[in-house]
Amino acid sequence: MNCTGTWTEGVACDPNPCEPVVGTCCLHDGTCAVLTEAECLTYEQATWNGAFTVCPPDPPCPMPTGACCISGACTLTTLADCTGDWQGMDTTCDPNPCPQPNTGACCHNNIDCRITTQAECVAAGDQYQGDTIPCDPNPCPPPPPTGSCCAPDGSCTETTEADCAHDWTEGAVCDPNPCIVPTKPSTWGEIKRTYR
For residue 82, what are the domain limits? Predict the structure, then answer.
């Protein structure tokens, strides 16, 4: 009979002088072990890479994936690739295991209310009213009233009373200009004196 393995002249098989054939086995957690093929296949989802292979195998053992949580969003990644909170090997994103960020009332233009996270509200340039604050009743303060602001030179701007340092009239507009300074009536004698 031909020997397809390692032949040793004059050596009997009892006791068995043959060492078992081993090779690398990629376990489910991504680690590499040197085992026989039979030993390797006793592990769930393990892969035997062949006789006489060594650790680490080429290509390396695939790393396990799991759910990775970032700001409530879930993605499947390896532990090494997760930049948030890794939920563990074989965890999934369905259903989403990630804790959701707190939400509350967000005021847009002082009047429109919507429920968002604080980060989303601030990123939009709006005012976050606090976690769990509802939009009903509307917590957003109405914008202050505007009116005409008359400067001493007769110029007019439409603004709030807080932003006006001169004479302010609520609800008034600048067209037509309500700030025109009335002229003082003069006599002919007063006019001639100004040019002497």
Answer: 64-100
